[in-house]
Amino acid sequence: MSGTYAVTMGDRGRLVVPAELRARSGLAEGTPLVLTETPFGVVVMTRAQARAHLRRQIGDANLVDTLLAERRVAAAREDGA
Asked: Which residues, at least 6 apart from 17, have a Cβ–Cβ distance to it below 8 Å?
């Protein structure tokens, strides 16, 4: 499933994704992509892949509940000051 492909940046910043990789990845003309800059280089993902990657990173954390709890603690501190 994994492969390494050498490509060359074209005019106006265009890259050609090899046909084999496009077919295997389900990439078609007009597919929205997300480019993420990392310390190791640039990662190209579809939006669905980016969402899945982010969900794996944050795990089961309920960010809304966490934020609300933090705000309640901060508000209680402000009321007590």
From this structure: 5, 7, 27
3-state helix, strand, coil in the chain (%, to 5): 50, 15, 35
User: How many CB atoms within 10 Å of residue 42?
Assistant: 8
Q: Any residues with CB less than 8 A from the CB of 43 and at least 6 apart, and which?
A: 35, 36
Instruction: Tell me which residue of 42, 31, 36 sits closest to 7, measured CA to CA.
Output: 42
Q: How many CB atoms lie within 10 A of CB 10?
A: 9
Instruction: Break the chain into its structural domains and give their ranges.
Output: 11-80
**Residue-wise pLDDT tens digits, 39-74:** 999 999 999 999 888 888 877 667 788 889 999 999
Which residue has 């490509």 as its token pair? 7
pTM of the model: 0.60
How far apart (Å, rounded) are the C-alpha atoms in residues 61 and 80? 29
